[in-house]
Design a protein that fits this description.
8-stranded mixed β-sheet; 11 helices; binds nicotinamide-adenine-dinucleotide; 255 residues; alpha/beta; single chain
């Protein structure tokens, strides 16, 4: 296990919300060697998550087929990963990654519940796309152990790891998550959430781009597909702005 000064060893992880992001994040954490439980309130989501990590487009069977994993590595990761409807059990972890839908009331309630049920040493990370991490941390009695860990879709493939620290986030929390993100094969960048400035880079810049792309469509200059094609050809992006939105929300499932 990779250690770094100030980083705590993370052996057990809980993932709250096993949808598009949570299921892939749980898969990656299990592949990185963590005993992982993915929790969801929906039985359908739990079943889907289970299927996705095994035989989905980015599941471990596909990785074995592509030669990215051996069959033994895939089976070992699956043995470390469970999906469960037991919230309390999921909370018994060194780190919890919250992946519930992007609603502030739900994030706040989830962090309150996590703060009450998780052991004192547990780090609570949010995969919010843009809510203030300081605001979420204020719902807990452990702001020093609250951090943003923003993943990109599909989490199994993307190397993106935007780690958002607040004024109250302890150095060891930052270091622990940074080291774990590297262990997951990601390329972590730590940024700051300040009282005056919103601590997200990727979605701030993406938001500006999608607003302008939508304006081009609203003004009748170009269709969605035409905007996408132009941006792909001009900047060598893998998809255009509208294709990105569609893919991210669907988990990049094939039509
Ligand atoms: N999809 C993306 O591209 C993307 C990228 C980065 C970050 N995010 C963020 O990740 C989070 C999750 O997004 P998603 O795309 O995976 O959504 P999703 O709708 O696919 O999954 C959310 C899951 O949370 C479950 N859920 C709802 N209430 C819950 C609760 N109280 N406790 C536990 N589970 C609950 C739902 O049943 C669902 O399975 C959001 O904050 C989103 O902004 C999404």
């Amino acid at each position: 296990m990779t250690r770094s000064e100030g980083a705590a060893p993370i052996e057990t992880v809980g993932v709250i919300g096993a949808g598009v992001m949570g299921s892939g994040i749980a898969q990656i954490l299990a592949l990185a060697g963590c005993e992982t439980i993915g929790f969801d309130i929906s039985k359908e989501a739990l079943d889907e998550a289970h299927k996705a990590v095994r035989s989905g487009r980015y599941g471990v069977e596909k990785s074995v087929e592509l030669g990215k994993l051996t069959a033994d590595e895939a089976e070992a990761a699956l043995a470390r990963l469970r999906f469960s409807d037991d919230f309390d059990e999921t909370c018994q972890a060194d780190l919890i990654v919250e992946c519930v839908p992007e609603r502030l009331d739900l994030k706040i309630k989830t962090f309150r519940d996590l703060d009450q049920r998780a052991p004192g040493h547990t780090i609570l990370a949010s995969n919010t796309s843009g809510f203030s991490i300081a605001g979420i941390a204020a719902a807990t009695d452990r702001p020093e152990r609250v951090i943003g860990w923003h993943w990109a879709s599909p989490p199994v493939i993307s190397r993106f790891a935007e780690i958002i620290r607040t004024k109250g986030t302890a150095e060891h929390t930052v270091e622990t998550v940074r080291v774990l993100a590297s262990r997951c094969g990601k390329n972590p960048v730590v940024i700051r959430d300040t009282a005056m400035h919103w601590g997200f880079v990727a979605n701030r810049v993406y938001g500006a781009m999608i607003r302008e792309a939508s304006r081009c469509v609203d003004e009748g200059i170009a269709s969605h597909d035409e905007v996408d094609q132009l941006m792909v050809d001009c900047f060598r992006w893998p998809v255009g702005p509208f294709g990105m939105t569609k893919g991210a929300t669907s988990g990049w499932k094939k039509d």
